[in-house]
Design brief:
This protein is mostly helical and 168 residues long. It folds into two domains: 108 residues; 51 residues. Helices cover 51% and strands 8% of the residues. It has seven helices and three strands; from the N terminus they run αβαβαβαααα. Strands 1-2-3 form a three-stranded parallel beta sheet, sandwiched between helices. α2 links the parallel β1 and β2. The protein is globular. The termini are far apart.
């Protein structure tokens, strides 16, 4: 096969690779609902939680036993309708409130890491500043707001890294 031929990566293989690389993972079940009658609800998130938990519980390398998962939902105990096997898990609820979501994620990280984390309000303000800067930068370079929302992950992460480097 010619060396310059691009072969798309199989999505599940990429998900497996990401799960194996990450000691910490966050899964938000609030996006599994269907939005219209007769529409199927999304199963990807539940599937990915299963792969992640399986990696933690069954991987032959014992380092994976230390994996930590945060599972979020929008309504308390709504996960039981779709994934009742999570009963007894510490599923955290954010009630579709982004500020509460930040509080939950920050509290979880603070319980696991030995870093001094900024407070939830600081994270919220920085998050909004980042979004405003991202919008201004990309609009100045000929992107529409919809195109900015659809940035591919590598391009988004490059901008995020540059933005963080400038803030230091």
């Amino acid at each position: 096969m010619p060396r310059n031929v691009w072969i798309p990566e199989v999505r599940i293989e990429k998900i497996q690779e990401i799960i194996e690389e990450c000691k910490y993972s966050i899964h938000d079940l609030s996006r599994i609902r269907s939005s219209a009658p007769d529409e199927y609800y999304r199963l990807n998130i539940g599937f990915e939680i299963g792969i992640d938990m399986g990696c933690k519980l069954f991987h032959s390398d014992p380092k994976y036993r230390a994996k930590q998962l945060l599972i979020l939902e929008a309504e308390k105990f709504s996960y039981q309708k779709a994934i009742s096997d999570l009963s007894g898990s510490d599923v955290r609820c954010h009630y579709e409130n982004p500020e509460l979501l930040i509080e939950e994620v920050r509290a979880w990280l603070a319980s696991l890491l030995e870093w001094d984390l900024p407070g939830p309000n600081t994270i919220w303000y920085e998050y909004n500043a980042f979004n405003m800067d991202l919008l201004a930068e990309f609009e100045a370079n000929g992107f529409t707001p919809k195109q900015i929302e659809q940035l591919n992950m590598p391009e988004f992460l490059r901008y995020l890294q540059e933005w963080i480097a400038l803030k230091r």
